[in-house]
Design goal:
Number of domains: 2
Structural class: alpha/beta
Distance between the termini: 13 Å
Radius of gyration: 23 Å
Order of helices and strands: HHHEEEEHHEEHEEEEEHEHEHEEHE
Strand content: 15-25%
Largest sheet: 9 strands, mixed
Helix content: 10-25%
């Protein structure tokens, strides 16, 4: 049966010549100027809060031109996998400090997970001009926290009501463990440096790690789209990359994806536990969306009708550019099938004999049996870029599908009775055929 499936796949007219595929430019290319967008403060502010009220920005594709890849999908798909997801986050922001606070903590919120009436609110935050206490390994932010008004609470959570996520990740955990809101702290204005605070779920699972890194990049995209009313400029811009560092708060080892945390950070990545002296300058702190909030996690037990995600495509292209890999893979005459050979868990018994039979039956098919654990992540991507059919047992290894060339095929071997649809949906978001 497995051999018959591969025969059907390899004889189908699903493939285009790699030379005919057009890819968009990477994020490193010059971007068009960002239009001015006002930060939206939800609900009425207290009478003592004199911060200017802002109006909703007009949505525009020009805010982040690298995402203008395909026409928008229906509302459900666009609000999770298209630029609309970023726009909704940008438009749902609120300040959590009083007007007379030396600094401010601004958080952006999104509701895409859960069922109607029980939606989870996902959050990312930006703190202006915080100082780092090396002894406590915490940031002090000059903020006198305020209680949100009734109208605001109907839309966004109070500071103490942020959602919690597995492995103790997310803004709620980071704020509780690593940020002290203290109105006596004198803010240095304007701070030019940025620190992204990261608490990871782990370090070796490609799906978990890449969902976290992807959520971080989308956090920075939202900050590029949103205007800070205190500066009348975007919270973040590509020119700030050279002044940005990532601070790792967990104690996991680096793992194979560690260097990708610096996608938007030119300063060296640091660990909080190794910071023995205070930072010499104040830092704008960024607490990104947690990986568990990523829309790619959502609805993975049901088939959705969403295809072609500009968010996912752009993230994959950013990784290719980071490793200096060509956007368009080199053409190859044969059809290449790559089998993900897992040596410990989720193995396919007898796969060597099955692959040998496949090679004998279809001579023009190049069959590769690859153990990704033996390769660096950049080398893994190179293998996948030269693959037409990616085959693997259900598991995180199929995350590599995001690096397949256009119009490729994903074959997932599911254990009997497992009805998980996550990688089927993932393949659809990439425009790949799935079996």
């Amino acid at each position: 049966m497995a051999t018959l499936l591969f025969i059907i796949l390899t004889t189908a007219t699903l493939f285009r010549s790699p030379a005919s595929i057009t890819y968009r430019l990477s994020v490193q290319e010059a971007a068009a100027p960002i239009p001015e967008h006002n930060q939206v403060v939800l609900g009425a502010l207290s009478e003592l809060d004199t911060r200017p009220l802002n109006t909703s920005p007009t949505a525009t594709l020009d805010a982040l031109p690298e995402y203008d890849i395909h026409p928008q999908d229906p509302v459900y798909c666009a609000s999770r996998f298209g630029l609309k997801y970023l726009e909704n986050l940008r438009d749902q922001s609120v300040g959590y400090c009083t007007a007379d606070s030396p600094a401010n903590l601004t958080c952006f919120h999104s509701q895409t997970a859960g069922t109607k009436g029980q939606l989870r609110t996902d959050t990312m935050c930006f703190g202006r001009s915080a100082s780092f206490n090396a002894t406590a390994q915490k940031f002090n932010l000059g903020c006198d926290r305020r209680t949100l008004g009734k109208n605001e609470v109907s839309r966004v959570p109070q500071l103490d009501d942020f959602a919690g996520y597995w492995y103790g990740t997310g803004p709620r955990a980071i704020l509780n463990e690593r940020v002290v809101l203290d109105p006596s702290v004198v803010a240095e204005e304007p701070a030019k440096n940025f620190t992204i605070l990261i608490k990871r779920e782990g370090s070796h699972n490609p799906w978990h790690s890449l969902m976290e890194i992807w959520s971080m990049t989308m956090t920075l995209d939202v900050l590029r789209m949103a205007k800070d009313p205190s500066t009348n400029a975007p919270f973040y811009s590509l020119s700030d990359v050279e002044n940005t560092q990532v601070m790792i708060l967990d104690n996991y080892d680096e793992g194979p994806y560690f260097d990708l945390w610096s996608l938007f950070a030119s300063r060296p990545t640091v660990r909080a536990r190794n910071m023995t002296t205070a930072l010499t300058t104040s830092e704008n702190i960024i607490i990104p969306l947690p990986g568990a909030s990523n829309p790619a996690w959502q609805g993975d037990w049901d088939v959705h009708n969403c295809d072609r995600s500009p968010l996912l495509t752009t993230f994959a292209q950013r990784i290719l550019a980071f490793y200096d890999l060509a956007a368009a893979p080199a053409p190859h005459p044969e059809i290449v099938l790559t089998f993900i050979d897992r040596r410990s868990t989720r193995r396919l018994f007898g796969h060597d004999a099955r692959l040998a039979a496949l090679r004998a039956h279809i001579p023009h098919l190049k069959v590769q049996n690859i153990d990704f654990a033996e390769l660096s992540f950049a080398e893994q991507i190179k293998v996948v870029r030269g693959t037409d059919i990616l085959v693997g047992v259900h598991g995180a290894g199929l995350t590599h599908a995001m690096f397949l060339p256009e119009s490729a095929v994903v074959v997932e071997i599911l254990p009997e009775g497992l009805e998980h649809k996550g990688f089927r949906n993932f393949a659809a978001l990439l425009g790949h055929a799935y079996f």
